[in-house]
Queue: 4 jobs
Job 1
Amino acid sequence: MQIQIESQPFASINTDALVTYVFDKDDRIEGAVADLDKQTGGKIAPLAKSGELNGKPFEMVLLHYPQGLAARRLLLIGAGKSDKFTHAELRRLAGASLRYLKSRGVKKFVWLAREKENNAASLQTVAEGLVAADFESDTYRSKKENTKNIDSVSLAGFQGNDLAAALERGKLLGDSQNWARTLINEPSNKLTPRILAERAEAMGKEAGLAVDILDEKRIEELKMGALLGVAQGSVEPPRVIVLTYTPAIVKAGAPVLALVGKAVTFDTGGISIKPADGMEKMKYDMGGGATMLGAIRAIASLKPAIKVIAVVPATENMPGGRAQKPGDVQVAMSGKTIEIINTDAEGRLILADGIAYAKKLGATHLIDAATLTGAIMIALANVHVGAFGTPREYLDRFLDSAKSAGEKMWPMPIDDEYQEMIKSNIADIRNTGSGKGGGAITAAWFIKEFAEDTPWIHLDIAGTAWNDDNKPWLAKGPTGIAIRSIVDFATKLS
């Protein structure tokens, strides 16, 4: 799909469809919509008066062969309340327009900017939404239900000198999000740890990143006992994927940011086996790893002035004859000993060794992402990412980036009282909390034990990494959540 900037007056653009949005308020016919109404000889105002055009979120009103326009269709999308309208809503509207028109056989259309959202930042947002919306999750269907495609989208009505750069950044972020979603969508027989490493290596070389893939021998030499404990039940060997972006000039004292992502390519729960219902979705348990790979893919092109390292421990969690058992004790790379209470609490184990290795490589700042706990879904459903971090100032800076990127994240507590819940009688720590509640928090505290005093952010994306249903703006399946926030944060940290 091609996306380009259009400079022609909207009325004269010859295209399959012209698209803009309408707010839910008494005076809906204003600005660009008023211009459209005038150009079409007053065809829009009566729709608003009759109630057919209300401006409710994602309401679609499609006019065919509108008088006064060269476009063969005019699509008006409801945008909701204008006082609550942000770039997050703008991104969704752009995506919804593409999916709506795509399903109707439209090949090309023009997005017409509104008067308050006609700058470079808004153009980038629209491009992100369009690219993400064009992703489909039906990879392995032999007969596709929908073979329709959008060939091109033109962006009209935008103003400013940096529009071209904004367009390229928006396309890059959307494309990196889709690249990660493609990985997350793969079935586990098509994406073992070794295959994931091969695909990450190919991407890294193409992006100009330094690549290092640790096989099981090197993992053992590094004494990554927490990772090896999870991996030992599977015939598939583990891998640790390390991709490094280094700027042309490395300033003395500059931060080194490590992105550590959980990549359990399939999670049965191990000996503490999961229920059969819904287990097929556990192919997405490598979503944190895919997130970090997608983020560093974009970072490689944007070239911030700091070094960024992605560390992705990859394994399966299987209930084989050699699998670790509840009650076992593992020794992590850092030397900490871990009592295994539940083998389904495996993500935090592999993150422990991933974080230790990132620090060994020189990381001064950490972000980890993982589809970690069911507890975060109980707390926040599928609306917000659970965001933990210390010191609080570091977390707040990241949350500012999340807000800029239009991704909903909620700060979670990391009080010292929760640390008591992961103390073990036989080892240094246990891999689940001793209480009945706070599972997402005790999981975060477990990871913090290995981050120690290094500035650290933990993103629990278990509730937000997968859509169970189609959204107007996004296909059912993987979402690619947190990539935009991480990239924004990395560029600002520099």
Job 2
Amino acid sequence: MERLDTGIEELNKKIEGYPKGRTILITGTTGSGKTILGLHFVNKACADGKNCKMIATEEIPEDILIQAESIGLQLRKYCENGNLIIDRVYEERTGHAKEVLAFGIEQLDELQSNLLGLLERIPDNTDIVVIDNIGVFTLNMSVNEFRAQFDSLIFGLSKKNITTVIIMDESANERMGGIALYSVYGILKTSIKDNPYTGARERLLEILKIRNTKIPLDPIKFEITSKGIVLLKKEKT
């Protein structure tokens, strides 16, 4: 199976890259590096000349570009040359919510819960998709409804042979009973934990699953630097 560069050399060595045409789920707590993993991937894909799409559900495009620049990733030039399209789902969601409230309507609108509608936003010539954060669609969905829509979304992306990274906050993952983990080809989990020996806070990356791939079982410490994510070597005991 062909693999695509994750954008992080040390991570490529751990998992051989992301399987082409499959979906990887990145889940984790707030501030643990989920979005930055996605930015690394889309940056490398754009550099390789692939047609990329980011579906931003919680940030405006300018904020995403600024965040990328803060870690040395120049996504702005790819937006300008057409390699990268950042979909303004966040702005649409907030704008529509204001309109709904203005009319005194309390029922959830389709834009807030229609996962399958995301497929219609992806051009046929797209190679790479990053969705950040899919958790916002789950706030008023039942577990059964989410599973049905999520599976259909992944199937639709696979039929288009699109390599996809889906980011989902851990609170949404837990609210949906963790069922998203069963539908995807691979799972990365980020977290921030206190080291019981040093008292320092550390970021950890766990590779929970990548089918047909030998993966490390132990959590990997990493840092977010001015050059992005750096995986740390395991300390000798």
Job 3
Amino acid sequence: MDPENTSGFKKNVEYMGTMIRQAREEMGMSQEELADRTFRRRLNVSEMENGKTTINAWTLLILSDVLKKPLSYFFPPHLVTDIPDNSLSPKEHELITYFRKIYDEDLEKVTLNIVKNISSYIPVDVHTAKIEKAMEEENPQEFLNLLLNRKPKKDL
């Protein structure tokens, strides 16, 4: 029995294609742009999005990077193992708990965009401006306090 001819396999390939298209459209990319950035032909991108071709691991890794999505995004939910609760910090668990309570898909997208933007924010410029101001005002105590109270970015 050829596993690629089974309906479950075909549905999984179609699901991945749908998710690739959705992620590409969220990024505002054309099929041609995605093809260029993933070193594929536009026809190949079209075939992937339409569930006409399987996607190898390397292509999936490249798509994940270019489309800014975790690998698990492209897989049907029944194939993705949930993150064990013991691997989450209390704050991460709380975030997921509240996210799952969002009832509207558009609100989920907005929430994800907010979290993505916050996660890329590094307040170095704000901190640097405060240090420069303390130096200009010749306030060594304030300068020292700013340096001593810096919080390192949490390792991921």
Job 4
Amino acid sequence: MSIWGKIGGAAAGLALGGPLGALIGAVAGHMMFDRTKSAPSPQQAQLAFTIGVIALAAKMAKADGVVTEDEVRAFRQVFEVPESEAASVSRLFELANRSVDGYEAYARQLAGLFGERADILEDVIDGLFHIAVADGAVHERELAYLQNVAAIFGFDEADFERIAARHVRPAGEDPYRVLGVDRSATDAEIKRVYRRLVAEHHPDRAMARGLPEEFVKIATEKLSRINAAYDRIETERGL
């Protein structure tokens, strides 16, 4: 079953708790309390990831003013929400937008759930950037919002610059920023970082991390930008 179907009411057994659990409970018709303090199951992790992206996207939409239907529509288009689940996703978006919980509460819950999995938290930020650029540009307030979310997730400024470079810079403007390496790095160092990034961000790894299939395309685009950046560096250095 698609993750969107689970949001629509089939997630009765996937207890999340916290502000994310309150959101999904409001849509599914029941609260989802924590049943255990152990690590989330793959199904819980997938649900938390998806709800987290929706909640943080809703809060981000307010960062540059009033949320419009165009922004909700952009979210649905970016993540290819089927029409049968559109009402549930829109309802979640609306509830997150109105919630008294600030975006920090959602970000902290995700950080707590995936604290040992920086790769998944980076996927969340990539997803938010994916939504932010849907209208052609990332606004200044959106960028500040994303940087704050990244900080809550434990990413430092250099990490954020590397992630942002894949989304808000023209393709290939600074390939070194995309890879997160200094221009003074040796060829061997750059190749080592490139290989690590390819291994970490390959779409197959995204699927192995248990991400919803709708989000794997983000990993595909991310890998494409990483490859393009390395190709430019290879050409520039004559490798």
